[in-house]
Design brief:
about 150 residues; three-stranded antiparallel β-sheet
Length: about 150
């Protein structure tokens, strides 16, 4: 996995983001945006910006929990929503997983979009009122991730 940290010198948020990455065992490729006019134009007031495998994953801040979720395969397409696909050996197990997600979503009062197919489930979550990913989405993704490592009945 390739992680790039767009940063600048004397930036406390950048130092904090690097610390989160290093604590997770990641040695990011650091790029100082002040040394490249194009990067300065793109990211000026938005650093730190973290790319994972060529796609933007975080801007401004990252927590250890958020990083773990992205490292477990969740994506942030265009920073609009969190998304992950899960695979199962058959339709029944995929449906059981969807039902388990539904129960957790009801408890959290935060409901993802779920796409169910034979042996597969795609989960997409964002806060519709904010039209963006919020803390509620990260918490839901974390809860779903815990489900995915347990047995599917």
């Amino acid at each position: 996995m390739e992680v790039t940290l767009y940063t600048r010198q004397n930036c406390p948020l950048c130092d904090e983001a690097k610390s989160v990455l290093v604590r997770a065992g990641i040695s990011p490729r650091e790029v100082d945006i002040d040394l490249d006019p194009e990067l300065l134009r793109r990211f000026n007031d938005d650093v730190p910006v973290i790319y994972v495998d060529g796609a933007e994953a975080f801007r401004h801040r990252v927590t250890g929990e958020q990083l773990r979720i992205v490292m477990s395969g969740w994506r942030l397409p265009e920073r609009h929503h969190l998304e992950k696909g899960f695979e199962f050996p058959d339709f029944a197990k995929a449906l059981a997983f969807v039902n388990r997600i539904g129960a957790i979503a009801e408890e959290m009062n935060h409901h993802p979009d779920l796409l169910l197919g034979w042996g597969k489930v795609r989960v997409m979550t964002w806060s519709h009122d904010a039209n963006a990913v919020t803390d509620r989405d990260w918490k839901l993704a974390e809860a779903i991730e815990k489900l995915s490592v347990g047995p599917v009945l």
